[in-house]
Each structure stands twice: as C-alpha cells, then as structure tokens.
Amino acid sequence: MKQSRFSVVERVVAVVWGADSLSPVMTAAFGGFKPCASRQPAALAYRIISESGNACFSLVRNGSEIGRGLDASKLLFALQQDIVVGIQRLRPDLVFVHAAVVQRDGRAFLLAAPSGSGKSTLCWALLHYGFRLMSDELAPVEPETLRIKPFPLAVTLKMRPPQSFPLPPSTLETHRSHYIPIDAMPCAPATEPAPIGAILFVDYASNHSAPALCKLSAAEAAYRLYPNVLNALAHQSMCLDDVIRMTCSVPCWYLASAALEGTAKEVAGLLCAL
Question: Which InterPro entries does this one have (predicted)?
Fold first, then answer.
C-alpha cells in the first residue's frame, strides 16, 4: 500500500491507496502541501479501495465509505472536495473564501468568483508574470490578522488555456479537468501565510474585446465578497463583520475579463503598481 501524509492548514491529512496507477494522480493533486512526518493521528484519514481490477474505486474517510464505483477522475474530484469541506469543519476559526490566490512581494491577492468565471485560468496566467501560487480554489483567511494561509492544490483548469500560457507536459489530464502539478509551475509556490493586498472579483465577459477594471467601494466589495464566503455560519454576525473588515482594509476591483493574455497583463500591471 502507498501512503501520503501532508499538512493542510495545520491539520494532518492521510491518503492510502494500492493501485500503482493512482500514484501520479496523488502526486499531481497534493504534491504542493507540506509532507507531514508526525505520527499523530490524521484528522482526515482516507483509504482508496480498488474495484474491478483497478478500473474503479471506493473512497473511505475515517472508516466510513463516502463514494464507490468512481473512476480515477471522479475519485480525484471527490477526494479534493471532501478535503475542502473537511478542513472547513476542522478549522472553524478561519474564514474560507471561494477564491484563487496569488502572492507577490509578500502580499496575497484574491481572485474571487463563482465556479466557471475563469479565476483558475487567470491564476495560471498570472503565474507567468512572477506571481506565486497560494491557491487556485480556496482562501483560508485568519480573521484577526487578515492573513491568508496557503492551500496549494494543483491548478485545475476545465479547458485548455490559450497557447500563450500552454499546459506543461506533466499536466494530468482527465475527462473532467486538467491538473497542473505544483512542480510544473513557472514560479515556486508560496509556502507561508501572507496579508491580503487586494481583492479582485472576476467575471468573464465574452463580449469584451479588452478587459475592464472598476474600482469598488468597500460596501460594494463586501456585497460581492459575502456570497463567496463558504463558512459564514461558523462566525459571529454570520461573518459580516469579517467581510466588512476585509473590504475596508484593502483596495477592491471588479474585473470584466476578456482575452486571457490581455487580461493577465492588465491585472499584473495593476497589482504590481500597488
């Protein structure tokens, strides 16, 4: 049996599997997290059981089956999503925002948006402008300090990006997504928490020939940020105070993104000038 133990926002996650075919999948998806040599019990302990001669799999978490009959693509998606939800339960002290996060010069920049708005694709492009990956999906925020902890899952793209930002050869491709391993990033990922430097609300606009940026007031930014908070019920005032403190503390913009190359260049120039 193979095993991977790693730390996710200071909680131990362990995954055990038997099929050799899953080893590159696990490395690609979770290789960005710090390995954990501690013998303390894992807060989230997963076991992957092969079925039908490794054609499909069952997923067990802490002794309870949470999925069966999963092909490798569905297995990886289910495992990632269960870790995302499980970590929120284990760390109710943190505010979890649905956002990609890149870091530069010690500051973290949030790209907040619902699924399908292009934030992961923009995140991938910004890594080619000297930004470092913190997360492509989840921003764990310390509400007292407004610092973001790294959550370095593989950058996951639903569609191939333009040729100006090609997928590396080691990209793991499934029928669902393209997973870009951490070791294939243009820059080394950020490994330490960083304070929020700015928040961008990403909205892909197919009818735009050029990207458009609009500076937001703190109130409008809070209105846009709040729906992207995933664990509001875990916090006092349903997290409204924390959201308002975030948007009052840093500049916020609405981004109507267009062609990726022009959008990434525009955003990189904006963030580097802050």
Answer: P-loop_NTPase
Do residues 70 and 107 share a domain? no
* The residue count for the chain: 274
Burial status of residue 164 (CB atoms within 10 A of its CB: 0-12, 13-18, 19 or more): exposed
Backbone φ and ψ of 189, nearest 5°? -70, 155
pLDDT at 54: 77
> Within the chain, where are the H helices?
23-30, 72-90, 119-126, 218-225, 240-249, 260-273
Q: Please state whether the predicted TM-score (pTM) of the whole model is above 0.70.
A: yes
Place of tokens 């300090």: 145
Determine the 3-state secondary structure of 204 from DSSP: strand
Strand partners, 137: none
96's CB contacts (< 8 A; 6+ apart) are 87, 88, 138, 139, 140, 141, 229, 230, 231
Provide the domain limits for residue 265: 95-273
Tokens of 103: 């870091």
Instruction: List, in order, residues 6 or more apart from 3 with CB less than 8 Å away.
Output: 14, 15, 16, 17
Task: Write down which residue in 42, 62, 90 finishes a domain.
Answer: 90
Question: Which tokens is 22 given?
Answer: 């899953």
- Shared domain check, 136 and 57: no
Same domain, 173 and 61: no
- pLDDT, tens digit, 9 for 90 and up, residues 223-241: 999 999 999 999 999 999 9
pLDDT tens digits, 31-52: 999 999 888 899 999 999 999 7
